[in-house]
Amino acid sequence: MEHTIQQIKKLVNENNVVLFMKGNAKFPMCGFSGRALKILSLCGVTDFITVNVLEDESVRQAIKEYSNWPTVPQLYVKGEFIGGSDIMAEMYESGELQEVFK
Asked: From CA 45, how far away is CA 54, in angstroms rounded?
């Protein structure tokens, strides 16, 4: 698990925007992941990477430990954990998420 956590840390720190999700940007495989993608789109974010946690069970478990957050999707911006789709929606509604991407 430690090796996978180090891989996650590297991904998060080397990319400006990372979304750990079920599925991918072209084919989200759960409603929450689809919602997260829609919110990113509404914020005008086009340059981001996605990590499909369904492809690797070790990543699916390690991301929860890495963030200390029990669910997926999980959004990271410039190395900082933002939250899941509910947090993203709240931040979008308040305008706070748009500020994160400025």
From this structure: 23
- Cα–Cα distance between 87 and 83 in angstroms, integer? 5
Residue 30: domain span = 2-100
Count of the separate structural domains present in the chain:
1
Predicted structure pTM score = 0.95
Domain at 75, CATH number: 3.40.30.10
**Which pLDDT tens digits describe the chain residue by residue (102 residues)?**
899 999 999 999 999 999 999 999 999 999 999 999 999 999 999 999 999 999 999 999 999 999 999 999 999 999 999 999 999 999 999 999 999 998
CB under 8 A, 24+ apart: contacts of 76-83: 76/12, 76/17, 76/18, 76/19, 76/20, 77/16, 77/17, 77/101, 78/16, 78/17, 79/12, 79/13
